[in-house]
Amino acid sequence: MSAQRRVDIISSDRTPPCPRCGQEGLLQARVPHGWVNASGALVQGRNGVVLCATCDADQPHAAALITWFHVNGQVEVGAEHEFKRLLVAWAEHVHVPLLDERALTEEAALWQEGEL
Ligand SMILES: [Zn+2]
Questions:
Q1: Could you tell me the distance, in angstroms and rounded to a whole number, from the CA of residue 24 to the centre of ligand 1?
Q2: Source organism's superkingdom (predicted)?
């Protein structure tokens, strides 16, 4: 399975507030996640993740991105490359608020048993 993950930035003038602390978020990204379930099928999904200057400050990869925002304010033309590099690094390590994997597993089991 490819480890490559494409991250979509949801660009908006109004980044939603951080779901953890309620402060204004720096950016919102849709981060794909996927895993191979018990039956060998790739399960994929996308979760919206808000980068928060407060809650994510302790996370190494998030910290670099937060610093970038502090320095640059916003993404300017010509700066995308560095921004994307930091963004991808963050997305690779971001803790995606996971779906209930056990529920999914149970659902997959039911599926296999023909219950669904
Ligand atoms: Zn927060």
A1: 8
A2: Bacteria
pLDDT in tens, 48-84: 788 999 999 988 889 998 998 888 877 677 777 888 8
Cβ-proximal residues to 45 (8 Å cutoff; 6+ apart), any chain:
32, 33, 34, 99
Distance 61 CA to ligand 1 centre (A): 16
Measure 62 CA to ligand 1 centroid, in angstroms: 12
- Domain positions in the chain: 8-113
Residue 7 and residue 91 in contact, taking contact as beta carbons nearer than 8 Å: yes
* Residues 65-75 pLDDT 10s: 899 888 887 76
Q: Are strands 8-10 and 42-51 parallel, antiparallel or unpaired?
A: unpaired
